Structures are given as C-alpha cells and as structure tokens.
Automatic annotation (TrEMBL):
SUPFAM superfamilies listed in its UniProt record: LmbE-like
Pfam family, one: PIG-L
Entries under InterPro entries matching the protein: Bacillithiol_biosynth_BshB1 (IPR023842), GlcNAc_PI_deacetylase-related (IPR003737), LmbE-like_dom_sf (IPR024078)
PANTHER family: N-ACETYL-ALPHA-D-GLUCOSAMINYL L-MALATE DEACETYLASE 1 (PTHR12993:SF30), N-ACETYLGLUCOSAMINYL-PHOSPHATIDYLINOSITOL DE-N-ACETYLASE-RELATED (PTHR12993)
GO BP of this protein: bacillithiol biosynthetic process
Name used for this protein in its record: Bacillithiol biosynthesis deacetylase BshB1
Domain of life: Bacteria
Length: 238
C-alpha cells in the first residue's frame, strides 16, 4: 500500500505524543497515513515489549491508521550504519510516501536524535537506484519522499511550521492514553518515571497549547525542517 504520510518513530508512543493530531487531521482529509516504529521500546522502565505491542495496536485503531508495523531494531543500541539504513530504506520503498515525519534531531533521549539522523540519511539514500533492496525476493523501486519533517519532542525547539490540530486534540489525548503503562494513570501500578508523572502529561498538552496560540489556534503541533519550505502563493499562509 502506498501512503501519503509515513511516520517513522523510534519508540511506540513517540508519534502519539508529538504528531498524532497531524495524523488525525490528514486522515480526516482522506489521506493514507501509517506508522513504522523502529523498536518495541523494550528498555522502558514500565511495561514490557509485549504490552507496548498491544498498546501500539490499540492506539492505531484510535487513530485510524492504514498500517502500523515495527522493525524490531534494538532499543537503545541501534546505530546509524549500513544495516540500519537499509532496514529503513526498505520501509520507505515499501510504502512510497510523499511525506515522512520523524524524530527530533536533538532531544533529551539519545535515541531520538540518533533516529532522526538515521531517517534523514535513509530518505536520501532511498532515492538512489544503485542501492538495491528487496522484500520477499521482489526488487524494490527507488523512492525519495518530497518532504521530510521532524516532530518536536521533550526539548523545546523553534518550529519551522505548525499544524493546527484544534479539532483533533481530544483524540490525540485518547491515543496517548492507550499507552496505559507509560504515562500517568492512577489505575496502573509501577515505578514512577520521567514520563509517567502528571506533570509530564500536562506538559504535552501545554506544548500543544503554546504552538496553537502562536498561530492563532487553540492547539498545534510543531515540526522542523533541514530545508527551506515554500508555498505556491502567499495566500496559502495563515
């Protein structure tokens, strides 16, 4: 299946935290959107890889994703090297997306920045026909998306573009709460972590309010780009 937007995120729940409103908005517009998680988040303090799988599947239903798959790379230990680039290239060529959204290039968690760089390099290499990849014995076509954006995570970064998600904030929160073991939930026992505190969840909502306010909306999600962004005419801007 060819997708309009492919989100490539290193941990299950990264997409929900940072760009699920944008996912919901574009699915509502009739676009085909999917997520490829690089790892199962197996090093997370709370829950297990199996519970993360279940939570990711529950969230996928809430979001209405067209596909969600997991590459099962090693959480915490994947590298931006030939093997891992080829795995990401295969996913890009499999779904032929126009747009890719990926992890922040700089963040508190070292996996995030490393994944952002991995996807950035893989997007370029995916467009080179002399790099041959195959899935189930079938040679893949080279493909380079026309746009790659990085979502903004725990560390504040000035966005290059903000998407108005005001109509989709409730569903965004629902998709995050599908990860019951990871975030604040008084009904789930477990060691408190940086992301399981009530303050962290409130900060996610606060960030969306901040980005929304900056464009005259109620809620927004911000993205950065390593290339300049253009529009057909000034009236497409708000």
């Amino acid at each position: 299946m060819n997708l309009d937007i492919l989100v490539i995120a290193v941990h299950p729940d990264d997409a929900e935290l940072c760009c699920s409103g944008t996912i919901l908005k574009h699915i509502a517009l009739g676009k085909k959107v999917g997520i490829v998680d690089l790892t199962r988040g197996e090093l997370g303090t709370r829950g297990t890889a199996e519970t993360r799988d279940e939570e990711a599947a529950d969230s996928a239903k809430i979001l209405g994703l067209h596909i969600r798959e997991n590459l099962r790379l090693r959480d915490g230990f994947f590298q931006n090297d030939e093997f891992h680039r080829l795995e990401v290239i295969k996913a890009i060529r499999k779904y032929q997306p126009e747009i890719i959204l990926s992890n922040a290039l700089e963040d508190r968690h070292p996996d995030h920045g490393r994944a952002g760089d991995l996807v950035y390099d893989s997007v370029f290499l995916s467009g080179l026909p002399k790099i041959e990849t195959s899935v189930d014995g079938i040679l893949q076509d080279a493909h380079r998306p026309r746009l790659l954006l990085q979502f903004i995570q725990d560390r504040y970064l000035k966005p290059d573009i903000i998407v108005d998600i005001s109509d989709h904030m409730d569903k965004k929160i629902e998709s995050i709460q599908a990860f019951k073991t990871q975030f604040y939930n008084p009904d789930v026992e477990g060691q408190q972590t940086y992301i399981s505190s009530p303050a962290f969840f409130e900060s996610v909502i606060g960030r969306s309010r901040e980005f929304g306010k900056s464009i005259g909306a109620t809620f927004g999600e911000g993205f950065t780009s390593r290339k300049l962004l253009g529009v057909d005419n000034l009236f497409d801007l708000r």
